[in-house]
Amino acid sequence: MSELVFVGLGLHDHLGISLQGLEEMKTADTVFIELYTSLLPGFSHQSLSKLSGKELNILQRKDLEENNGKIVLLAAEKGKTVLLVPGDPLIATTHVTLRIEARKRGIKSRIVHGSSILSAAIGLSGLHSYKFGKSVTIPFADENPSITPYAVIGENRKLGLHTLCLLDIKAEDNRFLKINDALKALLDIEAKRKEKAVTSNSLAVGVARAGSTSPTVKAGFVNDLLKQEFGDPPHTLIFAGRLHFMEAEALVVLADAPEEVRRLAN
């Protein structure tokens, strides 16, 4: 039976896959994996292959984006095919496109969800999930000096909402945008636009290696975060909007924010 199952791998290593996801692998005819949409620092191909008893066919960006996932769709037309994806499978628009094409070809598709940075970073920060506005990706400034992230943070801030910022990665080139570099890029835009969307006194939270056993979570004002060493990637950045008193308490207790943050709460 033709079938394509999208399976989330979680955030850090090969143990992040769910039991359901592992069972889907064991009963698959073909298993593909892509690792270009996110970084799994502790991931081991060999260990997951041994756990599942399946060979992992590695996909490159061009296989899914330039070639429209043809290799995956052809396999799925012949039998049960699993596509392993970092995080939660359909967060990346590439995979949504693939699922749409599968449906058009009459291929049944299912999703086995995994933990996502969208919920993990927010949970680690201690901020309330329902108080987040539009999220945004901050690109490498030398490749794409976009003002969109700055504008989104400013729009959310006017509404009192928090902003989750995903930091760009180029896994194939082993490039990962760091929190400090993202902050510098935003301050450079602030210096030109002077709209006070992001200033040295803006309150933010840096999260590194969410999903691992030793994530780094640090809240503070931008000026202070620029001096913070967050360690190995992946990194995520949150800009705080209007704070509830419990959020302020969480930032101080759980994210090592300065005591003065308590006074910012409503």
Question: What do you see in this structure?
Answer:
- By secondary structure, this protein is of the alpha/beta class.
- The protein folds into two domains: 3-112, 3-Layer(aba) Sandwich (Cobalt-precorrin-4 Transmethylase, domain 1), CATH 3.40.1010.10; 117-264, Methyltransferase, Cobalt-precorrin-4 Transmethylase, Domain 2 (2-Layer Sandwich).
- It is 34% helix and 20% strand.
- It has ten helices and twelve strands.
- The protein has helices spanning 19-26, 45-52, 61-64, 70-78, 93-104, 117-125, 148-158, 179-193, 222-225, 245-254, and strands at 3-8, 30-34, 57-59, 80-85, 108-112, 136-138, 163-167, 169-170, 175-176, 203-208, 216-221, 235-239.
- The strands form three sheets. A five-stranded parallel β-sheet has the order 3-2-4-1-5, sandwiched between helices. The protein has a five-stranded mixed β-sheet with strand order 6-7-12-10-11. A two-stranded antiparallel ribbon has the order 8-9.
- Helix 7 links the parallel strand 6 and strand 7 (163-167).
- The chain is elongated and about 60 Å long.
- The termini are far apart.
- The mean pLDDT is 95.
Offer a few descriptive terms:
266 residues; Cobalt-precorrin-4 Transmethylase, domain 1; 10 helices; alpha/beta; five-stranded mixed sheet
Shape: elongated
Q: CATH homologous superfamily of the largest domain - what is it?
A: Tetrapyrrole methylase, C-terminal domain
What is the string of helix and strand elements?
A: EHEHEHHEHEHEHEEEHEEHEH
Strand order within the widest sheet?
3-2-4-1-5
Nearest-integer average pLDDT: 95
**Broad structural category:** alpha/beta
Main pleated sheet: 5 strands, parallel
CATH topology of the largest domain: Methyltransferase, Cobalt-precorrin-4 Transmethylase, Domain 2
Q: Work out the strand percent.
A: 15-25%
What top-tier CATH class of the largest domain fits best?
Alpha Beta
What is the alpha-carbon Rg in Å? 20 Å
Task: Report the end-to-end length measured between terminal Cα atoms.
Answer: 57 Å
Helical proportion?
25-40%
Domain count: the total is 2
CATH architecture of the largest domain: 2-Layer Sandwich
Number of E strands: 12
Number of contiguous helices: 10
Detail the poorly predicted runs.
none
